[in-house]
Amino acid sequence: MASVAIASRPRAARRPHHARPIPRGVPYTMRLPDERTLFVEVPARMAVRDRGGELAFTPEGVEFLDRLRALASEVGSHPSPALIATLRRALGFTQEQLGKRLGVHKLTVSRWECGGLHPSAEAVSRLRALANAAKRTGVIVPECAGAHA
Amino acid sequence: MRGSPRLKNSDHIPALLKRVSHQRIRKDTFCLSKEPLRFRKLNYTIPGRTKTTLDEADDFIAARLASFGYAVGREGCLVQAFRRDLKKNIHHQYSTPHAHDPWHVAWNLSARKVGSTVPEETILLISHKDSMSWIDSPGANDNAIGTAVNLELARVLARYRSRRSFWFLFCNEEHWPWTSVTAARNARLRGEKIIALFNLDGPGVRKPEDREADRMTCFSVYYAPEAERLADLMAEVNRDYALGLVTARHKTDRVNNDDGSFIKEGYRVAVHNIGSMPYADPNYHLEGDVPELCDFASAAATARATLAAAVRLDSE
After folding, report:
1. What's the whole-model pTM score?
2. A30: domain range?
3. Cα-Cα-Cα-Cα dihedral sign, residues B170, B174, B179, B185
4. What number is the ipTM of this complex?
């Protein structure tokens, strides 16, 4: 019998690690300060693969997670400057708008966020009330809009 | 499960069964669906209160679990309230929320009991604790009563020295997305070995003819063939301990409910213990689902059967 050459099947080109597709929502579980955890699906556009193929979040993704962390956390008696700034953004306020809500000048809010000034107990209490109100009414999270697609 | 379990290995079960209190189940159901909390949802806060009714319910459940000696874990998930579509069937008027509807954080509450000899194997008891987010229903049968049954099982098992680990999970199924999806996914990522799952959702709801004939019923609904043995075990313990239930097993073709979230993650030995099949509550997903209409005797009998089945599995 004459030998028949069998053409070998062409191998699919192997994708480099960093070119592997990113899932539509990247699951991420973060630990909150009080040992609770918060699970979030981070939109794919906020994630990239490094050279080793590991997923990493873009600065936009990190900021998104920070905002959610601030919303899910309790406002303690001494909120950090970063928490005040992140919470303000999560609630959708400018410094001026937050200042009006708390009865202080926008420059005061700016100083809180820079760490130059600590908010008074009364201001913290009002900030906590604002955060709790947001928990009750819910918060628009534009980044999660893709979750319905 | 290996073969037919033997009674002599499980003779501590009758003592545990005696501890199941129908009065406690009743009291907790009323607390969660009438006074002080009429609803358990993220889009309703009692006027003058600082927390949503679901957050208040979480505090109630966590406090009860802590009083039994459990450390309570909280796992948050972003969810939305369902919208209501009046064009749909009255019992199924939930509809997917819009992309720009508000988001809330809903918490899965977990209490765990670590096993003494086979701690890596877990028996999971799950119930959803929230009420309907699209309608003002107290959700007494769906599922304050299942939550109360799960709490009662956690209480009874608190001092029981189990061989395997027990996981009591209180999740949310009337908001979107279901938080049991996250719990199941994270269980798989942790490599958790769940050998059996009992979903307590709507226990105690009987068909009118069963109520008239004073028959207490429990259907064990399962999807995967691997879970058939679990449904059989429910019938077996009912017979062995004379629990007075009429049990039936029901194979479903749909992966659904909170047990379905776990089935999709590969945890296929799962049953849903429900009072009737098809579900016979005329107030299903309606404002009239109030605790006064709950059948606590039937729910307590289902609690005992679930307890006996879980402990028998643990004793094997």
Report:
1. 0.91
2. 20-73
3. positive
4. 0.85
